[in-house]
Amino acid sequence: MTLKDKLIKRIFDVFAAFFGLLFSTPIIIVAWAVAAVDTKSNGFFVQLRVGMSGKLIKIIKIKTMKNTALHRSSITTESVTSITNSGVFFRKYKIDELPQLWNVLKGDMSFVGPRPDVPGYADVLTEDDCIILTVRPGITGPASIKYKNEEELLLGQVNPKQYNDEVIWPDKVNINKKYIKDYTFINDVKYIIQTIRG
Questions:
Q1: Which residues span the membrane (predicted)?
Q2: Which residues span the domain enclosing 39?
């Protein structure tokens, strides 16, 4: 990815995130209130993730689960089924992702890129895999699209963490490396459209 690519990508992110927040703020407020009632807690889910250059960032989403301590390394049948009724709706229509427009606007994230992961994954990459940390993590991307049903996939495994660590994570790393090495702005637009279409 060239300096020009990064500049065009950032300009797009700023303008799209600004207008996205302008129009989606009422939706975010309503979703936050519904999630707060459903989970009996703050309707926002805030979690530390690994961002560009290995810097820790706080991502913001609409809370969709009663068990907000859930992360990929501790997925269980019980925790996955604790998704709230509103959470099912929010996830289906990507409403839970809307608050991340703020992350994009402030420069922590991009619309498209590797998903920001919990510590213990992206921050321990080595050698040429570290290229993933040279770009801002994204709300969506080729790996996110391929594994959009990741939780359901992990549910079917005897050892979800082992399957994630040995199969899904390495595949995501390879997909994200290819995304960065073969980057074009047109591909970003395609990934955004694919994500919206579901």
A1: 12-35
A2: 3-197
